[in-house]
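Here we describe the complex-level prediction in full. Unlike the single-chain runs in Section 2.1, the four entities below were treated as one system.
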Amino acid sequence: MSEVQSETAAGPEERDVTELVLQDILTGMLPAGTWLKQIDLERRYDCTRPEVRRALDRLSQKRLVAHVPNRGYHVYQPDDRRAKEVGDIRVILETAVADMMVANATADSIATLRGLAKYFDEMTLTGTILEHYEANLAFHRELLLLGGNQELVDLVSEIRQRTSSAPVSQWRTRARIEKSGREHHMMIDALEAGDAEELKRLIAQHIRQPADAPK
Amino acid sequence: MSEVQSETAAGPEERDVTELVLQDILTGMLPAGTWLKQIDLERRYDCTRPEVRRALDRLSQKRLVAHVPNRGYHVYQPDDRRAKEVGDIRVILETAVADMMVANATADSIATLRGLAKYFDEMTLTGTILEHYEANLAFHRELLLLGGNQELVDLVSEIRQRTSSAPVSQWRTRARIEKSGREHHMMIDALEAGDAEELKRLIAQHIRQPADAPK
DNA sequence: GTTACCAATATTGGCGCCAATTTAGGATAC
DNA sequence: GTATCCTAAATTGGCGCCAATATTGGTAAC
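The structure predicted for the assembly as a whole is:
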């Protein structure tokens, strides 16, 4: 074929189309407002029509894309109000288990967190935008895991995607990214020191970056 | 046709199959562990195969049913750990906005809540199990709405379904239901009195009924 | 009498076709 | 020259068929 194939399609094994579209939305390859024509996606990800439709249906359930009957699906336009509200929810959930995190922290878990924070910093320099996003996710998942509530970990991962429609590209400012990296280490410090209040303060500040920035 | 048709299928207008299956799971018509054969659902709800499949896919995304490849879908077995964790999350979220609820409460909103609480009590006596469930939902939605965070309202409605796999039928004990009804009114009282702390206490107690009972 | 194997049946799930609706472009009338 | 209507292309979305796989029941062998 002479037409351009997405490199994601040439992956080693067959991966779920939903994941692929999700990643491309998160990384900004499919900007907010883009109409997701089924035939385009079919070719882009080298998959069948039903697969495309299942992916679009799932993403619209997650409210990452909007569905207009007989018109099609398009990437959600970021909504300031929603972004703020989701940020608030995240602050509520993630600070709520700070005491538990301090209580459950062990030398092992702190070492793991240090590693993940370091990996995030490395990805800032050398990684792709997706790797960077996932490194960030991994750190926060591991941190939340100390809260002892598996459902909460999953829930936060879920709602985190909810306003990430345009977000990851907002990480552009290097200053902000580096600040995020430093904050990760400060959180681990607070955890190590057993200072739950400081940890809560850091988490809240980390989430509420000006203009719903990264995390 | 001589075979038995579900009365839900004979509804006034065509409703979404996903909703219908969801309701039947919530009301206990489809008990936990039941295998949801596509051909059965097709006949039960008088719909087509693709509709059934879309519904099953959506419900498995919501983790209300489990999908075993080449075996089919079955209603999730309630999990004690998950039930507890979801309960904890709900306590976190719903108590977190208690201050806002008190701050935003008006004479109008309190009157509306009284009406909904009263309606819940009526449904205890005269309504179907589904009407009762929805009356409860309506009350809590209206209450949460005072928190001023629309996303949070939707999120709670969502996770509320997450462990409701067997739950609504657990409302059997009349004593518990009546206790729930009374608690609704006590919450409104606390709201009216501007006592946020008491409201938080009531909400937490209301959610954490022994053995993850109603709400 | 019990167990293991095999065949028949039933169920899942992938895939493509076609009708319905929308959109865009062109031609005609004013 | 501009606006409106009509026709043609494109896109969505509903529906059914068929192959792949699991399950069940029967049969034969030990």
